[in-house]
Specification:
Rossmann fold; binds adenosine-5'-diphosphate; binds magnesium ion; 7-stranded mixed beta sheet
């Protein structure tokens, strides 16, 4: 568990994630609206050399950024309202050469690749953000 003060440096969290993933991997980001999932992807993308601004893919559902390796950022929240939508275009972002970050992975059940790392973001009693990082057994 890593604790980060509000507005604090997320580099230690991003480093812990990168200790557990490589290109072709998929990171699930869990936590309520406003937990800081998109903000963490911004910190992780920056660390891979992404220079473009990283914005929430809430409406586009997926964004791809040039980095080393490239970063695919999916937010499946709105898929919850679109049962039956063809998701092959979203799956196509998660290629062997990118690191994928997925917000609301529960809405990708059945087609989303398994996570190689799950990050759960919550708050302690003081409202401080807590990042629980669980690599899959294959990446320990
Ligand atoms: N580590 C953080 N420190 C301070 N503010 C944060 C942090 N993470 C997120 N926020 C703020 O909380 C709000 C929601 O963050 P966001 O990353 O969009 O959450 P989510 O993607 O989980 O819904 C934004 O206004 C953002 O600036
Ligand atoms: Mg978000």
């Amino acid at each position: 568990m890593i604790t980060a003060a509000d507005g604090g440096d997320l580099t230690p969290v991003a480093e812990a994630v990168y200790g557990a993933v490589q290109a072709g991997d998929c990171v699930y980001l869990e936590g309520p609206i406003g937990a800081g999932k998109t903000t963490l992807v911004q910190a992780c993308a920056r660390m891979l050399g992404v220079s473009e601004p990283v914005t929430s893919p809430t409406f586009a559902l997926a964004h791809l950024y040039e980095g080393t390796p490239p970063v695919a950022h999916l937010d499946l929240y709105r898929l919850g309202e679109a049962a039956g939508r063809d998701t092959s275009d979203l799956l196509a972002y998660l290629t062997e050469d990118v690191i994928g970050f997925v917000e609301w992975p529960e809405y990708g059940f059945g087609w989303l690749p398994a996570a190689t790392c799950v990050v759960r973001i919550g708050f302690d009693d003081d409202g401080t953000r807590q990042f629980d990082i669980s690599p899959s057994a294959s990446r320990l």
